[in-house]
Amino acid sequence: MTIALETKGLVKRFGGLVATDNVSFKLEQGARHALIGPNGAGKTTFINLLTGVIKPTAGQIFLEGQEITGLRPELRVQRGLARTFQINQLFPAMTPLETIGLAVSERTGGGHDWWRVTGSKREIIDEIVEIAQRFRLTDVLDERTSNLAYGKQRLLEIAVAFACKPRVLLLDEPAAGVPEAERHELLATVAALPRDVSVLLIEHDMDLVFSFADRISVMVNGALFTEGTVEQVSTDPKVRAVYLGESVDE
Amino acid sequence: MLTILFDGIAYGMLLFVLACGLAVTLGLMNFVNLAHGAFAMAGGYVTAVLMNRIGVPFLATLPLAFIVPAILGLVLERTLYKRLYSRSHLDQVLFSIGLVFMAVAAVDYSFGSQQQLIQLPTWLQGRIDILGVQVGLYRSFIIVICGALVVALQLILTKTRFGSRLRAAVDDPRVARGLGINVSLIFATTFAFGSGLAGLGGALGAEILGLDPTFPLKFMIYFLIVVTVGGTTSITGPFLASLLLGIADVAGKYYVPSVGAFVIYTLMIVVLVLRPQGLFERAR
Amino acid sequence: MSTNIADHVRATLVRRGRWGIGEILFWLIAAATLYFLPERHLILNEIVIIGLFALSLDLILGYAGIVSLGHAAFFGLGAYTAGILARDGIADPLLGLGAAAIAAALLGFVTSFLVLRGSDLTKLMVTLGVALVLGEIANQASWLTGGADGLQGIAMGPILGLFEFDIFGTTAYGYSLTVTFLLFILARRIVVSPYGLSLRSIRDNPLKARAVGIPVNRRLVAVYTLAAAYAGIAGALLAQTTQFVSLDVLAFHRSADVMLVLVIGGVGYLYGGLIGAIVFKVLQDVISAWTPQYWQFWIGLILVIIVLAGRERLTERVRVLWKGVAGRTAKSPETLPKTSAREV
């Protein structure tokens, strides 16, 4: 198995606080890997380090064997590392059609293209349609994003990341806050992501984790606590202790 | 040399009294109020009109120069400003520019476009010689008054209950609300007080800065420099910034008049680019 | 099913690139005024120039979301560049226009790096500061600019060696209108391109724009530079057609007025600047006829009311109205053959 994404000794300190503690992590090609952990375990910080929103204090990050530690966020995206955000980060005044069109034409180098009208290229149109269908957005393509139902917004969030044609896709709590009625649609599209995209899923929802992932890493206090198959992790008494302790606190 | 320093300090203190209300509006309500100078102008005109038309002595006009703009500020805050706290900065800028335009034209209409001159009482005129330094009496007066105000402000902020509530509200309005603090009342009071101070500054400064209908536009940039360079989380920041600006401006005009305000604007840009949070702010 | 969607997608995307009847009418009427309103050419010329200036502000405010209170810096630099060239004997208008555009673009490029960081307030202060610094320079360097007396002795040659400027302003108006129209076509093309779409996305949510792989800073620098060049050309047009430049071109009220013009017309759909310029000038004309000195008061009042009434809402309404008129294209987009999709 080749390694899609790897970190070596990744550390992030905020003042005295260690948010990411010497994390060495491997995401295999085509993996469905979940990263779980109690609130405040540093999962989102870890994602932010991977995507380059913040810079690590120490350590390295590799995407398909190439070091990307010092690369700017947008360059990482261009190399095939895309993410979704825990809280929707969309373009409220644009339609899903424009949003997906933007991501597709950016990826195909159209962003410098200031003379051509958006949508004059056949391949781009086809790809927009394909993505809209995959993420069940065809019926809301022309609505203002800010008017969409929350579940649709979450779908669009994933669709945009997917439109960047990532080799590695980081999903930060894709199902968070989605009402029960819209949940099924979301889970189905996540499950149907093509296998050549390696996915790292950060999630609280254990149902989603167990149904989706084939490997699980547990993060506690910024460090990797344990890692294994779904079977191993779900029966691990230490993991249970961490989670029970957490739920008592809450 | 020392005379210039002295004049600069007087000028700087005046700027502080004029601008500190703006620092609070900005820090507390995150409101970009370009019309702050209009309140200062109101104070200046109160003094000028009372003195020149009715013959009220200078000192007696000062309380009114505080009260009238304060009431004006209170009314405007309650009726108009509060609707715009949650709006974009662009809206706030447009709104307050509109107010400035209205104030400028209204004052021009009522009092004419000429400079308003005020006759200082004789005991404030002239200069005396202290240890070989020529010191203007009126400027000493300003330093004393403004210095007292600064100390009073600092005491109010740090020692009183209102002060601690205000600081809590500046730190995090939502948390402050959660603690049962009436944030909107604090907003209104502070806005009125800041407007009043600006008015007082306008009255005190009429002699030094000049007073005509374009006052709010002319000094807008100075007020903005004070708050952006000084930061808005304490009053020491704007105070130091005011002193620096006052001294630099007076010294610049004296030594290198041909360069004019050029240096100050350039410095402001440099500071803002290097330290967008302000010169005296610790990076968060 | 999916071909239907594909057609719909293409039609929706391409529709924005096509000119509506209302738009064509707008420009036809503008062109017609060249013949039908000869006695108004001086003021029309002014309107067009302000409109172009506001259009340039729309590019950075409406499409990239940068709040600027110092846009007059570029306008003024363009005006002085063109004016000084003409005074010193380079009388060809187009040459002056080009030089002004380049000078303003250079300044825009350099200063754009200053407005990439910081809050709205910092941007506002920095842009304002740049304009003030320029104003000071123009004031002090009176050997070059004429200082407070203004730049005198501008003599323009004929445009393309053919059209002499006349005292009725007809040539001037035709010239300004043509230049503005050409620049408008370019701007319109840009805002419907993928590049323009990426600008809108940056305005909406810069963080997300980065996550989609958009090099945000580079895009902003580019549009800021472009807008500066536009403003510079507007300034140059003013200098050339009025044959006079004063410190006024760099003054604060220039920057404030242009923002007002844009806000009256509505931000973010390109016509806002032009429509705003017409409304602004007409208002100014009407109000000053009625109360010459204090028209600023009413302008201020209008601004306050616009903001209180909800600028966004008003703009949205104007836009909808505009779409009602302008959006009606010659044929409904669905029935258009594929090749008409403005492929370049």
Provide the fold topology:
The complex is a heterotrimer of chains A (250), B (284) and C (344).
Chain A: E1 3-14, E2 17-28, E3 32-36, H1 43-51, E4 58-63, E5 66-67, H2 73-79, E6 81-83, H3 96-107, H4 122-134, H5 150-163, E7 168-172, H6 180-191, E8 198-202, H7 206-212, E9 215-220, E10 223-229, H8 230-235, H9 237-249
Parallel strand pairs in A: 3-8, 3-9, 6-7, 7-8
Antiparallel strand pairs in A: 1-2, 1-4, 4-5, 9-10
Helix pairs in contact in A: 3-4, 3-5, 5-6
Chain B: H1 2-29, H2 36-54, H3 58-79, H4 89-111, E1 127-130, E2 133-136, H5 137-159, H6 161-171, H7 173-178, H8 183-209, H9 215-230, H10 236-255, H11 262-274
Antiparallel strand pairs in B: 1-2
Helix pairs in contact in B: 1-5, 1-6, 1-8, 1-9, 1-10, 2-3, 2-8, 2-9, 3-8, 5-6, 9-10
Chain C: H1 2-15, H2 21-36, H3 41-61, H4 72-87, H5 93-112, H6 120-140, H7 142-145, H8 170-192, H9 194-204, H10 206-211, H11 216-242, H12 252-265, H13 271-290, H14 295-326
Helix pairs in contact in C: 2-8, 2-14, 3-8, 3-11, 3-12, 3-13, 4-5, 4-6, 4-11, 5-11, 8-11, 9-11, 12-13, 12-14
- Series of H and E elements of chain B: HHHHEEHHHHHHH
Specify the overall morphology of chain C: globular
Question: How many H/I helices of chain B?
Answer: 11
Helix content of chain B: over 70%
Largest protein-protein interface: A-C, 50 and 39 residues
- Identify the strand order in the major beta sheet of chain B: 1-2
What is the helical fraction of chain C, as a range of percent? over 70%
Low-confidence stretches of chain C: 328-344
Describe what this molecule looks like in 3D.
The complex is a heterotrimer of chains A (250), B (284) and C (344). By secondary structure, chain A is α/β, with parallel strands linked by helices. Chain A has helices at residues 43-51, 73-79, 96-107, 122-134, 150-163, 180-191, 206-212, 230-235, 237-249, and strands at residues 3-14, 17-28, 32-36, 58-63, 66-67, 81-83, 168-172, 198-202, 215-220, 223-229. Chain A has one domain (3-249): P-loop containing nucleotide triphosphate hydrolases (Rossmann fold, 3-Layer(aba) Sandwich), CATH 3.40.50.300. Chain A has a six-stranded mixed sheet, with helices on both faces. A four-stranded antiparallel sheet of chain A has the order 2-1-4-5, with helices on one face. In chain A, helix 3 (96-107) runs parallel beside helix 5 (150-163). The radius of gyration of chain A is 18 Å and the shape is globular. The relative contact order of chain A is 0.18. Chain B is mostly helical and 284 residues long. In chain B, strands 1-2 form a two-stranded antiparallel sheet. Chain B is globular. In chain C, 71% of the residues lie in helices and 0% in strands. In chain C, helix 4 runs parallel beside helix 6 (120-140). Chain C has one domain.
